[in-house]
Amino acid sequence: MDGDADLVERIRAYPRRRTYLLPALHDVQHSLGWLPGEALETVGAHLRVPKSEVYGVASSFPDFNLTEPAEHTTRRCIGVACRLAGAAAGPAADASSEADCLFICGVAPASERDGQLIGRGDRPLQTVKAENSAVLVQDGSCSRAVADTAHAGGRSVGCAGNCWQAPAISRDGGQSWTSAVGGELWTQPGEPRLLRNIGRIDPLQPRGYKALQRAQSLGSDAVWQLVKDSGLRGRGGAYFPVGAKWETARNTAAPQKFLLVNAEEGEPGIYKDRHLLEGDPHRVLEGAFIAALGIGATNVVIFINGEARLAQERLLAALDRARQLGVAGVWIEVRLGAGGYVLGEETALINAIHGMRAEPLARPPFPAVSGLQSSPTVINNVESLANLPDIILNGADWFRSVGSASNPGTKLISLAGSVRRPGLYEVPLGTPIGRIVDDCGGGASGELSAVLVGGPSGSILPPSLLDTPLDTQSLQAVGGVLGAAGIVPLTSDQCVVQTVRELVAYNSRESCGKCTPCREGTLRMRDLFDDLRGGHAATSVLERIDELNDVLQYASLCGLGQMAPNPVRALLRHFPDDVGDHLRGHCAARVCTSNGVTR
Ligand SMILES: Cc1cc2nc3c(=O)[nH]c(=O)nc-3n(C[C@H](O)[C@H](O)[C@H](O)COP(=O)(O)O)c2cc1C
Ligand code: SF4
């Protein structure tokens, strides 16, 4: 630190308030590659935070390096899509070279070398050259992981969702796409709303902010009423009605109110918010400005995943442009996360912005009453906000014209795993799961044996339930949850017990440890699954799993622990034969072995 006068100066330039702890730590890590003790001390002294607490905060974020990293680093993704695509879990001692998800599941298996994402195994980057400026070249995270699309020429656009074709180009203005290395033509299925322009527009070119202008002419009350009438539910996973959340903040008297945009997106297998921010960041910003108006928010904070680098770059560039155009109208700030699934939980986000550990808080008070700086704070997901410009321009009835009565509108689906066309798709809520796999994904890549829906807090469903409509109530009826709407088909050579074991193990790694039921319970659940998977579980293991599920659901502080039982319960309910086989030491898929437990 002594030798880095610039860095010390930058740290001292922060206002001396704890809320700048995360930005200051980012600054240090960006300059030095890690957080040496001396730097923690300098940051703490300036922000008036005890060194022990600076350490406590830094250590709660997995992306901060508290030891000096090697000169060159490689991380292999061990997320479910990458495992299914052939990425093997490494030896337990090698955990630092593993990532739970690198969020380019459409080009699995993925890895990262010295910060560069690499898709489809270890192949070298392809060179793409567009022959003229009429050729559209998709330039998103997936494309950049397989080819040098940043320097391909042509007209650079976001990814239309066809990650499986990356690097993809279009010679007809984005009507149809082909991979730059050849293959079939593809057109976007259905009638997308949120993805309508992605792949056709320059992501950074503002599109007039007409919806914001209309919202301003309607005024705050009418905007709120319209959003309430639309029936839009939050797309971050809880599906809480957006209008109702705004109403609480509107009705709470306070000199300042916040909109906190949740762009943290840390759930493995989910890449929808990144996709929107990479391909159409002005849509998200316009949605945020409309929301601020409808809520009566004086301040907007956008909290974006620290590793979503392309999404950050495009969001910041679009924000600069919006500021130049004078459309922002509110005080607005962008904050970066530093990893961890639980950080996306809304009260953990607030804690992080306040310079505290990435741990959830007990409720009440709910953030809409008392959140950032103890002021009313509405937290909305990126996809929720991206719906607002269309609602303002087209009205509530138009929004309700697709989807189901209780779940109107469309939903972005992150589709990966054993499917022919992994990518990001948009379907009306209520579309049967099987149709998504077939019509969007081109079908499973082998004999379909199960479908994971909703990620590590979601469920595993058998092929007999493929008719289940993708909405919250229909899924609930079969013991599922929609969550952020990741769908991962499995084939018969993949073991359902092993797959759920990986979700259980993930939840135990991501438990922040603040409350005992989750900290101990998820770990114990993982051990029980290892017994089951290894073929040495007693029959009573099922009773113990049931008991543990109840404790986790009822006694955990936040959604991570409360929903950790979901995939386990779905497995026991829908795959009793596979569970029974494992109790007898037999794995039909021949995946589980008595000594093959990974982590
Ligand atoms: C463990 C956990 C992780 C979460 N991660 C995210 C996330 O990455 N992005 C998100 O928008 N919501 C996430 N949520 C949900 C948020 O707490 C919150 O409900 C959401 O941001 C509200 O926005 P919405 O009403 O527009 O959906 C998470 C919840 C839990 C329990
Ligand atoms: S439920 Fe788990 S993740 Fe949530 S606060 Fe408790 S320990 Fe942390």
- Examine the secondary-structure arrangement and name the CATH architecture of the largest domain: 3-Layer(aba) Sandwich
Mean pLDDT: 94
Instruction: Note the main sheet.
Output: 5 strands, mixed
- Structural class designation: alpha/beta
List the total number of helices. 24
- Bin the helical content: 25-40%
In the CATH hierarchy, the third-tier topology of the largest domain is known as Rossmann fold
Shape: globular
Give a verbal description of the structure.
The protein is an alpha/beta fold and 599 residues long. It has five domains: 54 residues, no CATH class; 93 residues, no CATH class; 188 residues, NADH-ubiquinone oxidoreductase 51kDa subunit (Rossmann fold, 3-Layer(aba) Sandwich), CATH 3.40.50; 82 residues, Ubiquitin-like (UB roll); 88 residues, de novo design (two linked rop proteins) (Up-down Bundle), CATH 1.20.1440.230. The chain is 38% helix and 12% strand. The chain is built from 24 helices and 17 strands. The chain has a five-stranded mixed sheet with strand order 14-13-17-15-16. Helix 5 links the parallel strand 1 and strand 2. Helix 8 runs antiparallel to helix 9 and helix 19 runs antiparallel to helix 20. The structure holds flavin mononucleotide and iron/sulfur cluster (SF4).
